């Protein structure tokens, strides 16, 4: 039998299994907004409660981590099979059973760099959603210049004693373990004295404080380490070789972001005349001719068209990058613009939406504003961080100038 | 739609790049300008391009063409655009040539298109008027029927390669008011027709544009192309095709202007260091890179959408032209600025890119015109 036929056999197997095992109450749920979906962990809550059954059944088949080896409880699927599974989940409108930094970031990193003991210890728990992870990278004095980080790890027998402060530890207040970058050799060059360390958040000496943003409540936290004792065996890869691991993990993080862009590029397109969200808002807030639906303000119409066209050109660029990869070409320089351009566009989009909503775009809470309006104001403020987190736009432009354009330091 | 070049298209691009490198340096554009060449391009080089099969790319095989699409023509035009080659793809092949391919009678096609594909015949499209901006339906030039013949009166501007053309497709109104969408007809007017006056113009980009004046210019009934009064849909389809070709040319020009500027940033020393080490310039260079990559995606998508007859083709063509217009002028402006004083001299070639970028921007619709069209197509 050909590979294609095998794949189609697998597809019908998946379809039958999902039909038999996906709880009815979770069908039609979407996990699209920030923080939505099931993130697992010791303190996991399930909404609706059948999400728990859904997770357990999928985890039992290893399909929460479809391509990971079966030895650790993964699905052992090929990339093609994993794609079929994702397609069938989408076709049946089923939410992902599990998401989070375990599956997306530390899991792949451990598969690449972890010891056999570390893989046995952590991967199975990630697959089953038993342990939730958070990321300890940035510090108050180390943002864009991450390698200057100062959280100290001093050797004491079989342990490191960790002291310092991490910021932007998303979901630090609900995570069970943290993967953190610590300075284990203060005398080495800054990239060469860093160790990548796995730390149980229940270890004495760890304090977590939520961070309030300009947009209000956020998943971000500050995590403080005060004489925290961590077994030396929790170092991933060699001691003082953590920077290599950190960069590999950033690669997985970027792959996750690129996937999200790809998904939006493949998303359904509006039919002509139906109007985008921006156009609908313009009509809702009094910019349109009631009869034709045309936007009367030529300047606004131009701004909306400009933004929509920028977004379309961006999605076409993501598609071009994927098409080139499918045709067997090496990744082209175009992928380096994804992060900076997508985040700048998202800021522009939110800014334009608030301006269209006018006085109704200013609602923080309370009477006189509907839910969408209040969400809009908060999302606009939150979007300002898009071009800061995950490498600022300025850093992205530096990277393009250096690596793609070859401009001198 | 696959946004990746096929092996054949890559080969074609390579052939075109080699040809352009050997035969068409920017110095040739300067020489054509300085010698006040009446055509503004090289007939000998055009004949060679025809022999390579490029001129016939979008024409049916039965008409002596290659029966290929815009995706193929675009890779050739991009390479030509890199060195600002002024040969008349836009006027002869894409504008007037496509009018005849889409709407011409069998006799008209046989009479004219074989000669076009072989590189011996030149055509032009006289569409734009002083008051029409880029709107295809705003036509004040009128054609009156009298005794089985047509008499055409009016004035056309920016007729590309009008001076070299053996015949000009003239857009004229046969009924209705000056901005009606119906009542527009197309006429194929031989360059020696009585009452036709073609005045070669001198433009910033040194391309061969002409003013076409029709004072009761008389043509026979069989000079009409396509159905009476139904010329607008033909013009729209033709203009979309031509716009894709122009965008491909613009993509080539902006890529080359950018690469030349990058090279300058790496080699120009001031304050003891290459000026490309300054972050103020690095970030601007990175922005230009982003804009050019987005243009490339839009041009590839537009070419394929038109080739596939996609209903989305008009919107994607407008996307490509809006982006290429704005990015083209941005890149060219920055190129001159980053070159500094030398960039302002006629001796240096970078200024030729600025002049062509502006002319290309203001041909077949600029950024704001195409954004308005995008909005109109989307119903707002």
Give structural attributes.
heterodimer, A: 409 residues, alpha+beta, Butyryl-Coa Dehydrogenase, subunit A, domain 1, Butyryl-CoA Dehydrogenase, subunit A, domain 2, Butyryl-CoA Dehydrogenase, subunit A, domain 3, 3 domains, 4-stranded mixed beta sheet, 4-stranded antiparallel beta sheet, 11 helices, 43% helix, B: 380 residues, globular
Walkthrough of the structure:
The complex is a heterodimer of chains A (409) and B (380). Chain A is built from eleven helices and eight strands. A four-stranded mixed beta sheet of chain A has the order 1-4-5-8. The longest helix of chain A is centred in the C-terminal third of the chain and has 29 residues. Chain B has 380 residues and is α+β, with helices and mostly antiparallel strands. Chain B folds into three domains: 116 residues, Orthogonal Bundle (Butyryl-Coa Dehydrogenase, subunit A, domain 1); 106 residues, Beta Barrel (Butyryl-CoA Dehydrogenase, subunit A, domain 2); 146 residues, Butyryl-CoA Dehydrogenase, subunit A, domain 3, CATH 1.20.140. Chain B is 50% helix and 15% strand. Chain B has a four-stranded mixed beta sheet with strand order 1-4-5-8, with helices on one face. In chain B, helix 1 runs parallel beside helix 4 and helix 4 packs across helix 7. The longest helix of chain B has 37 residues. Chain B is globular, with a radius of gyration of 21 Å.
């Amino acid at each position: 039998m050909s590979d294609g036929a095998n794949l189609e056999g697998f597809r019908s197997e998946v379809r039958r299994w999902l039909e038999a095992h996906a709880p009815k109450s979770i069908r039609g749920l979407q996990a699209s907004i920030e923080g939505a979906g099931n993130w697992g962990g010791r303190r996991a809550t399930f909404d609706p409660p059948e999400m728990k059954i859904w997770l357990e059944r999928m985890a039992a088949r290893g399909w929460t981590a479809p391509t990971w080896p079966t030895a650790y409880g993964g699905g052992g699927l090929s990339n093609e099979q994993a794609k079929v599974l994702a397609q069938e989940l989408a076709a049946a409108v089923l939410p992902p059973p599990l998401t989070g930094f375990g599956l997306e970031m530390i899991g792949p990193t451990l598969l690449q760099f972890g010891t056999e003991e570390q893989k046995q210890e952590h991967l199975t728990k990630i697959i089953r959603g038993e342990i939730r992870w958070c990321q300890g990278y940035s510090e108050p004095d180390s943002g864009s210049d991450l390698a200057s980080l100062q959280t100290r790890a001093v050797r004491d027998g079989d342990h490191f004693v960790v002291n310092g402060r991490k910021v932007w530890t998303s979901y630090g207040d609900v995570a069970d373990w943290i993967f953190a970058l610590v300075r284990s050799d203060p005398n080495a060059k800054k990239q060469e004295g860093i160790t990548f360390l796995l730390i149980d958040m229940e270890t004495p000496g760890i304090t977590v404080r939520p961070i309030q943003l300009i947009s209000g409540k956020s998943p971000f936290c500050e995590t403080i380490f005060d004489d925290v004792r961590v077994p030396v065996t929790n170092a991933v890869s060699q001691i003082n070789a953590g920077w290599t691991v950190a960069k590999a993990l950033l690669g997985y993080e970027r792959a996750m972001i690129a996937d999200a862009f790809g998904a939006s590029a493949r998303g359904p397109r509006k039919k002509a005349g139906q109007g985008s969200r921006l156009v609908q808002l313009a009509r809702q807030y009094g910019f349109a001719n009631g009869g034709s639906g045309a936007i009367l303000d030529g300047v606004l119409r131009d701004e909306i068209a400009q933004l929509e066209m920028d977004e379309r050109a961006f999605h076409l660029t993501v598609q071009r990058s994927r098409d080139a990869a499918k045709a067997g070409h090496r990744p082209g320089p175009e992928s380096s613009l994804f992060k900076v351009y997508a985040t700048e566009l998202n800021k522009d989009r939110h800014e334009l939406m608030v301006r269209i909503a006018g006085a109704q775009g200013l609602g923080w809470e309370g009477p006189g504003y509907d839910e969408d309006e209040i969400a809009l104001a908060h999302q606009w403020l939150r979007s300002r961080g898009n071009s800061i987190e995950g490498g600022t736009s300025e850093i992205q432009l530096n990277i393009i100038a250096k690596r793609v354009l070859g401009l001198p330091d | 739609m696959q946004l990746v070049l096929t092996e054949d298209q890559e080969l074609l691009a390579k052939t075109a790049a080699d040809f352009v490198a050997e035969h068409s340096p920017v110095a040739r554009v300067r020489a054509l300008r300085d010698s006040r060449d009446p055509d503004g391009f090289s007939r000998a080089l055009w004949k060679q391009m025809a022999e390579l099969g490029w001129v016939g790319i979008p024409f049916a095989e039965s008409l002596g063409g290659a029966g290929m699409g815009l995706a193929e023509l675009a890779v050739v035009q991009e390479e030509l655009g890199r060195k600002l080659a002024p040969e008349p793809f836009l006027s002869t092949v894409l504008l007037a040539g496509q009018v005849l391919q889409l709407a011409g009678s069998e006799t008209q096609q046989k009479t004219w298109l074989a000669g076009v594909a072989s590189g011996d015949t030149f055509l032009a499209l006289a569409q734009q008027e002083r008051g029409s901006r880029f709107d295809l339906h705003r036509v004040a030039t009128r054609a009156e029927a009298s005794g089985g013949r047509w008499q055409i009166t009016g004035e056309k501007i920016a007729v590309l390669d009008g001076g070299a053309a053996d015949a000009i497709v003239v857009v004229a109104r046969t009924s209705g008011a000056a901005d009606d969408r119906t009542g527009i007809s197309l006429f194929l007017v031989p360059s020696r027709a009585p009452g036709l006056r073609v005045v070669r113009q001198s433009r910033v980009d040194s391309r061969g544009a002409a003013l076409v004046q029709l004072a009761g210019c008389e043509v026979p009934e069989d000079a009409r192309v396509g159905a009476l009064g139904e010329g607008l849909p033909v013009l729209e389809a033709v203009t979309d095709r031509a716009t894709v070709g122009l965008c491909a040319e613009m993509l080539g020009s902006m890529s080359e202007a950018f690469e030349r500027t990058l090279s300058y940033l790496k080699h120009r020393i001031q304050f003891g260091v290459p000026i490309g080490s300054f972050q103020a310039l690095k970030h601007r260079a990175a922005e230009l890179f982003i804009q050019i990559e987005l243009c490339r995606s839009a041009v590839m998508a537009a070419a394929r959408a038109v080739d596939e007859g996609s209903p989305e083709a008009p919107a994607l063509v407008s996307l490509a032209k809006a982006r290429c217009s704005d990015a083209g002028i941005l890149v060219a402006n920055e190129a001159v600025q980053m070159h500094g004083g030398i960039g302002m001299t006629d001796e240096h070639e970078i200024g030729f890119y600025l002049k062509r970028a502006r002319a290309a921007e203001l041909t077949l619709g600029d950024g704001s015109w195409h954004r308005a069209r995008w909005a109109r197509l989307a119903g707002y």
